[in-house]
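Section 5.1 Outputs to date
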Amino acid sequence: MNFDTVPCKEGCSECCGPFPLSPMELARIQKYIERIGRSMPELMPALNLPSDWEAKRSLDCAFLEEGRCIVYPARPLICRGMGAVDSESLLCHAHRVRARRLMPRRQFNKLLRKAGY
């Protein structure tokens, strides 16, 4: 299922934070990282997230370098949904951009389940 996505403003990492990755998405990201000449082992320490939610909120995404997403073309579904889903928690609050057609939250939840979340 396709949906309108909102391209992030270059250098903006306002919505980026630690998030769970399904095994399917992690494998896709790993292939992308290898294709660009990087390796997952160098990123693994940043993927070990604390279990405490408050501690997680203060962390950046493991795939951010100098405020830019190094896996942007292969970014996880939850990232693609920012600004594209009819849900307050997935709206872009930093730049107030949104897709022309917002995907209903229920449909997006189905996509997340399909992706292994």
